[in-house]
Amino acid sequence: SAYSSKVFRVTFLTLAASLTVPLLGVTVLLDCPIDPQPISLKEPPLLAGVLEPNIKLRKAERLWENQLVGPESIVNIGDVLFTGTADGKIIKIEDGEIQTIARIGHGPCGTREDEPTCGRPLGIRVGPNNTLFVADAYYGLYEVNPGTGETKMLVSTKTLIEGQKLSFVNDLTVTQDGRKIYFTDSSTKWQRRDYLYLIMEGRDDGRQVSLPKAFNLLLLEYDTVTKEVKVLMVGLRFPNGVQLSPTEDFVLVQETTMARIRRYYVSGLMKGGADMFVENMPGLPDNIRLSSSGGYWVAMSALRPNPGFSLLDFLSEKPWIKRMIFKLLSQETVTKFVPKYSLVVELSETGSYKRSFHDPNGVTVAYVSEAHEHDGYLYLGSFRSPFICRLNLQHV
């Protein structure tokens, strides 16, 4: 018996070594597409009180299922809805009918390789003259006439700004008079199709300009009258959704990788200054929009469960594991390991949590990218789902 046990141990260790050593050798020789740096995250907030898990998002209804492709952002003019989709289209939905009114890029569309030419409309807003302002990840900022479909380029990604081109135009917010557009460029290195690399790399690859490095973000301003683009904040760890305050004295910027929201003052005594609005959020914030209560709706692209296991937090200070993963696995494969969990939170005007809507396992609502409030309903956009969800706020 002792002899058999020894033989088994030797055989097992020999087999393990024969498999592990070649694997490690191959892993060392393989190139890694990312160069991650350690990120220090606090322990996620406890999912208790107003953040306690529920199934309120499961009360939402799916609209136009399988008729849309990843409607990321949503706006309305009256009762007419507009959105941009993953196949490069800008869509109008009126009386239940879907119509393509414009597209900035051109076909073919449908694959990862097609995205840079197909285009990907992300953030979308309504201007004072009922035109649409659109942030296309690959082409830049555009103004679209929803009646005629005419598109007008405002800022091209080919234009050099502080010596660099825009790489991943993401979201925008517009002043009431339409004079200023504040927008994010999420990376100087990665395009939208490589957003997972951007999250996992976690690097501060901001523009090298003479602004304080402590801002740790990238926020730009476009003046529709002078046509000038200014860099307001530099450095980034995935700056994402942006939203002007109701009084337009500051802009809120979601910093997805760091699970927080920064505030940049655009008017008043603190103009040009910045501070923290919300830090250590229970998920990775995507887009942010105004709520009718004077606060803000924040859509979470992924959850940081507590109690529970957060993959992002686990990997945050282990860049060597990230390198190992992306040497062996594609972005598409890694994405499959991210649990489905939909979460939308409402913040007060001061940044405190007012309420939260959950859909554990993403049964009804999956991969929420934006929550847009209109006429008592919350319209939920998704960069991956083939539908828009609508939640009656009086029933939750």
Judged by helices, strands and strand pairing, the structural class is: alpha+beta
Radius of gyration: 22 Å
Q: What general form does the structure show?
A: globular
- Per CATH, the superfamily of the largest domain is TolB, C-terminal domain
For the record, the CATH architecture of the largest domain stands as 6 Propeller
Return residue spans where pLDDT drops below 50 for at least 5 consecutive residues. 206-217
Strand content: 35-45%
Keywords: Glycoprotein, Membrane, Transmembrane, Transmembrane helix
Family: Belongs to the strictosidine synthase family.
Protein name: Adipocyte plasma membrane-associated protein
Pfam family, one: Str_synth
